[in-house]
Design a protein that fits this description.
Layout (H helix, E strand, L loop, with lengths): L10 E3 L13 E3 L7 E6 L9 E3 L5 E5 L10 E5 L5 E6 L11 E6 L5 E5 L7 E8 L2 E10 L6 E4 L2 E6 L10 E9 L5 E2 L9 E7 L8 E6 L5 E5 L4 E7 L5 E9 L6 E6 L5 E5 L4 E5 L5 E6 L13 E7 L2 E6 L17 E7 L2
Parallel strand pairs: 2-24, 11-15
Antiparallel strand pairs: 1-20, 3-27, 4-5, 5-6, 6-7, 8-9, 9-10, 10-11, 12-13, 13-14, 14-16, 17-18, 18-19, 19-20, 21-22, 22-23, 23-24, 25-26, 26-27
Length: 349
């Protein structure tokens, strides 16, 4: 049985307090650690698939920032329940010279799609795309001057993570979560800790991986969860009535090289985590048990193997996983970027 972290002793208020040192979470392992299958092979205009959202018609929308080929535009693809792929839209540049880099995405209850356009803190922004069928009929800017990564829509609010806050001078990497009203338009952020829309920030202890908050998700009760990629930690955040974060609780601590990226809940409040660094997938149960569901050596993804998972989503009886397959270096199993470009799935029992 997995050792449960002593959560009651790990709550810390945000006002400058740090969490106590804890050992890495003990992890159970599934019987079959290579359970993934091929859900979809992607076209040449999506070499680096990233985030998912379930569209109003029940299909999956997939963002393609295409960092592997800057000659390509930022694209949105549509995936049917049986893995058929079609082009949904090219993300508008709105007068900027360089292409859009769509990462986190989420639909609201009216069918509008919010897109984190990750262009760096100077030109990055959150877009609202309004569709008529598969055609974009309007594109609006919610906010600019940020570099969004993960994105969630919840009760009329848009929440985004930013991996780094380069304007914040500190010995460690600072990252943050911003919160915007869906009705906001053309807000200009300073990308500093003085921004009114910044609701939470933290420092990443592991300076071997200088990236912080990445994955973000809400459970059934509306509680906010986030993952620190550099420290491979998952937190539950406490918010006051005004939406400001007042506390954080450490729920899981995995080895640093795990590099937890995207996170997503199922209907039973199990939290699934993409282990970007080591081609792994984990599940955190509501009672604190962490189970490794998948563990793959370096591969090309051709048979549906997990190949640098960036994001995941529960879709029917499947856990759908995007294979980013781009980053390499110390502590990363992926050795090169290559075809095929793929989305994998794991059957959920």
């Amino acid at each position: 049985m997995t050792k449960l972290l002593p959560n009651a002793g790990l709550i810390a208020l945000i006002a400058g307090l740090s969490l106590p040192s804890v050992d890495a979470t003990e992890v159970e392992k599934a019987t079959n650690l290579q359970p993934a299958k091929l859900f979809a092979e992607l076209p040449a205009n999506c070499p680096t698939p990233d985030a998912f959202a379930i569209a109003p018609n029940g299909s999956l929308t997939l963002s393609c920032p295409n960092f592997a080929n800057n000659k390509l535009q930022g694209e949105l693809l549509s995936l049917s329940p049986n893995g058929e792929v079609s082009h949904l839209a090219t993300v508008p540049t709105l007068g900027l010279k360089k292409k859009a880099n769509p990462m986190g995405i989420a639909y609201d209850e009216h069918g509008a799609l919010y897109v984190g356009d990750s262009r760096g803190p100077k030109f990055g922004r959150i877009l609202k795309l309004t569709f008529d069928g598969n055609d974009i009929v309007n594109t609006e800017v919610i906010a600019s001057g940020i570099n969004p990564n993960g994105l969630r829509y919840h009760q009329g609010q848009i929440y985004i993570t930013q991996l780094q806050m380069p304007k914040v001078k500190s010995a460690k990497t600072t990252s943050a979560i911003y919160r915007f009203n869906a009705s906001d338009r053309n807000l200009a952020m300073t990308n500093t800790l003085t921004d009114a829309q910044l609701i939470f920030h933290t420092e990443t202890d592991n300076q071997g991986i200088k990236f912080g908050l990445d994955g973000i998700a809400f459970n059934k009760a509306g509680e906010l969860f986030t993952a620190d990629l550099g420290d491979s930690e998952v937190y539950r955040l406490t918010m006051d009535k005004d939406g400001k974060v007042t506390g954080k609780e450490l729920l899981a601590k995995l080895p640093n090289d795990t590099r937890i990226d995207g996170i997503a809940f199922d209907g039973d409040d199990n939290l699934y985590m993409a282990g970007f660094g080591l081609n792994q997938i984990f599940k955190l149960s509501p009672d604190g048990v962490v189970t490794m569901l998948a563990d793959y050596a370096d591969n090309d993804g051709s048979n549906g193997q997990i190949d640098q998972p960036a994001d995941l989503i529960v879709y029917g009886d499947k856990l759908i996983i995007s294979n980013f397959d781009l980053m390499k270096g110390k502590g990363i199993r992926n050795s090169k970027h290559s075809k095929p470009y793929t989305v994998s799935y794991i059957e959920l029992n």
